[in-house]
Amino acid sequence: MYNTLLTSLENGIFIVTINRPDKLNALNKDVMSELNNVLNEIETNQEIKAIIITGAGEKAFIAGADIKEFVGLSNEEGKALAKTGQDIFLRIENCTKPIVAAVNGFALGGGCELAMACHFRIASDNAKFGQPEVNLGLIPGYGGTQRLVQLIGKGRALELLMTGNMIDASIALDYGLVNHVVPQDDLLAKAKMILEQIISKAPLAVGKCITAANAVFSNENGYEIELKSFGECFSTNDMKEGTSAFIEKRKPLFKGN
Ligand code: COA
Predict the structure, then answer these.
(1) How confident is the model at residue 94 (pLDDT cuts 50, 70, 90)?
(2) Distances, alpha carbon 79 to alpha carbons 97, 149, 174, in Å
(3) Are the C-beta atoms of residues 131 and 147 closer than 8 Å to each other?
(4) Environment class of 69 (CB within 10 Å of its CB; exposed 0-12, middle 13-18, buried 19+)
């Protein structure tokens, strides 16, 4: 179905693996277009409850946008390329199903940006993060200047952006860029374990957590979004089920409606 992605669906957890290991899973046009297509599948397939994005091989999550495709672009073409990337990564960020990045190696440039667009990140102990675009006379263009500041604060972000230096998994953990660091062999199991917990909760409520948290960084009034979303929960069957189950001292069975 896809040429540059591997996908698998098991017990509601959909694993998307960027599959160009000989190019360290660099994001070329084909990968970006297929990422956009896989988001259509994620949004419409009711069997998909949660998503893990990872990279093929043991070396890289994604070593960046494909640098070869940058050669010879004009100002306008460069801007258009970044706009496409920003739009796709915004779709990831705003998806109401949980998306976790399982970072299994280098997460550089567009790879770090993709990981940051996910709802949270888990890293293997060999992972390395960085925005090395200044080495190429560039800056991040897929939202990296914004999300890095949001996630680790302006001072740390600007040091990484301006030096182009990489940080290892333990520093990424210390900075709050990743939630957990585990041995590479345990990476997918850790991501699955957390997502299994999440998908046992009320899906509409989970989606509303994402939307409300994202509003912190948007032009919208996050408190208003929270009020609206909180109110909407009261008209869901899952809220009735959750509260009844608590009172009846049983486990809730959420249906996502
Ligand atoms: N775009 C295109 N190709 C890339 C790439 C990228 N961002 N990152 C790696 N590759 C390719 C290399 O060109 C090489 O291909 P080749 O075998 O056809 O020459 C292959 O992936 C393996 O990479 P290589 O550089 O040989 O591996 P390494 O272990 O020596 O170095 C990195 C690993 C990650 C340090 C190095 O590949 C690198 O610096 N990549 C670019 C990172 C970057 O600047 N990303 C931001 C882009 S905006």
Answers:
(1) very high
(2) 29, 21, 33
(3) no
(4) middle
Q: Which of 20, 22, 24 to mutate to test the pocket of ligand 1 (most atoms within 8 A of CB)?
A: 24
Residue 8 Cα, ligand 1 centroid: separation in angstroms?
Answer: 27
Q: How large a percentage of the chain has pLDDT more than 90?
A: 100
Q: For domain 203-247, is the CATH number 2.30.30?
A: no
Q: What's the 65 CA to ligand 1 centre distance in angstroms? A: 10
- pTM for the predicted model, two decimal places: 0.98
Catalytic residues: 113, 133
- The correct answer on CATH 3.90.226.10 for the domain covering 5-198 is yes
- Of all protein residues, the one whose alpha carbon is nearest to atom 20 of ligand 1 is 23
Stretch(es) of the chain classified as CATH 3.90.226.10: 5-198
CA of 22 to the centre of ligand 1 (A): 9
